[in-house]
Write a structure and sequence with these properties.
The protein is of the alpha/beta class. 28% of the residues lie in helices and 17% in strands. A seven-stranded mixed β-sheet has the order 1-3-2-4-5-6-7. Helix 2 (95-109) links the parallel strand 4 (87-93) and strand 5 (116-120).
Length: 248
């Protein structure tokens, strides 16, 4: 079977004419750009909402998977540079936080550091603990994922659906496990905001403070209800905080 034609890494979820700010959202392992579709209604004027679509899901389901965080970020930056100019706010959830961080670094290196980097439900770069989950047996693999919530029970309970999604999930988790931050790099200078879901079984709240080291700028931590997938709780409040509670 021939490889599916690539459709690109960016999906516009809410357009804005001559946007002042472009909010770029990076989904979790197994997630797609549509995970942030509900954010559109919470945006103030002048903000464009863009979701990152990794290969292997949604309208890119048949494409070759990418299991390297740095490569993912490089592809995203290449497409952001082709869009009309705007300040960037980057929001990444779980795996997406690492891709967002690498994207921020690449943008900084070419003189376009983002307005803000937001990291959600993710240990600091290089801090992942269960690095072998992508190697687990299918039963253990899905049992672990089911315990986190955030996955449609219809997928978990259907053997054919699990078989369909397993390669994509394993690839994403392998990317997360193998990621190591660049050695000796200069910290960002933009504000870094972190979001922790209370009771998250993967991320201990105290460890989130390690994100402060990635920037010389301001660091803030918000604790929200909802566990690992807190991003579905109080979306308007989250979007307001991500955008900095300041006029666009």
């Amino acid at each position: 079977m021939s490889r599916a034609r690539e459709r690109g890494w960016m999906r516009t979820l809410a357009a804005a004419e001559d946007p002042v700010v472009r909010l770029v959202c990076f989904p979790h392992s197994g997630g797609s750009a549509t995970a942030f579709h509900g954010w559109a209604a919470a945006l103030p004027p002048g903000v464009e909402l863009v979701g990152v679509q990794y290969p292997g899901r949604g309208d890119r389901f048949g494409e070759q998977l990418v299991d390297d965080v740095a490569e993912m970020a490089g592809r995203v930056v290449a497409e952001l540079l082709r869009l009309p100019p705007a300040e960037h706010v980057l929001f990444g959830h779980s795996l997406g936080a690492l891709v967002a961080y690498e994207t921020a670094m690449l943008l900084r290196d070419i003189g376009g550091e983002p307005r803000r980097l937001c990291a959600s439900a993710c240990l600091p770069p290089g801090g992942m603990k269960n690095r072998d989950i992508h190697l687990a047996s299918d039963d253990e693999f899905w049992e672990t994922l089911a315990a986190l919530g955030g996955i449609d029970p219809g997928i978990i309970e259907n053997a054919e659906m699990r078989e369909l999604f397993t390669p994509t999930l394993r690839s994403d988790l392998r990317a997360h496990a193998q990621y190591r931050p660049r050695v000796g790099t200069t910290p960002l200078s933009c504000p870094v905001s972190c979001y922790h879901g209370d009771g998250d079984p993967l991320v201990d709240q105290d460890t989130m403070a390690g994100w402060a080291a990635v920037t010389s700028g301001a660091y803030t931590l918000r604790v929200r209800p909802g566990g690992h997938f807190h991003v579905s709780s109080d979306v308007p409040g989250l979007v307001e905080d991500v955008l900095g509670r300041e006029p666009v």
